[in-house]
Amino acid sequence: MSLISKNTIPKTSIHKNTDTNPPKNTSISANTLNSKPLPKTFIAAGNSLLDAAKQLRDKLFRDPRHFQIAYLSSFLLYGVFFLDWNSDLRYFMTAFLACTLTQIVATYFTTKNYQSIKSGLISALALCLLFKANAVGTFALAGILAISSKFLIRYKGKHIFNPANFGIIAAIILTGDAWISPGQWGNSIILLFVLGVLGTFILLRVGRIDTSLSFIITFASLEFCRSVLYQGWGLDYFVHQMSSGALLLFTFFMITDPVTTPNSPKARIIWAAFIGVVTFLLANFMQVHTAPLWALFFIAPITTILDRKFIHPKFNWK
Fold this sequence. Notes:
Layout: H1 2-8, H2 11-20, H3 26-35, H4 37-62, H5 65-82, H6 89-109, H7 117-130, E1 131-133, H8 136-152, E2 154-155, E3 158-159, H9 163-175, E4 178-180, H10 189-206, H11 209-230, H12 235-242, H13 245-254, H14 265-285, H15 291-299, H16 302-309
Antiparallel strand pairs: 1-4, 2-3
């Protein structure tokens, strides 16, 4: 029995198979075990990046001023690169410096809420898009007056005038060196379409589409009745009147400033319609080609009366 047992299972073969020939995939499994924590690290890093991106997106979408800045900046760049506004670059830089520095200084002595610098940038962009002057100093004056009006001309914690509108009109009155140039935009259908679509999107974010529609419907209806129905001019003339880049920029941006418009939706509709009527009268009976901006300047103080008549929570930037 012992002989059969020894011949059947040699000791040497047992040692060879167990000690000297380990499985070939031993090192692979060890590496696999050692690399398991790495995917978890990558996943955690990816999740952190996604969370940061979501937080950034939420911050950008929460404040409509980000869209306003992007909206106005795109049209300023269009003017520089496609409408030959290159000669005005030093005026643009002056407007930005005047508005932002005035905003920073005034904020330091008042609220210390430096988020308001975004509003200063919006006012500077408006000056660049609508305002013209011979001297750089006139641009600086317009910027300083625009931002200063927010802090100096107030009623019950709310500034009365649209800053850019006030700066433009005040600089024109005080210096005689400035003007508004609505014709610099031309009448490109594509530009006007993009301006209208993006403007509508921003108004929906701000919640002031009622103001824009009330103004443009009132003004366009009066113009149509006078030029087409009463005077018998062609429809193309009416379309040309309403296809001004400056008019659409005013409609979708300046008149809809949520801080200076009336608080109540009903009051805003009345207020904007009144501006439409005054714009029509100035444009047709006093030949004021930049009538919307002058109408807004004179009608703006009525906001205080409407806010007392129609009680509604005041708008505040978040």
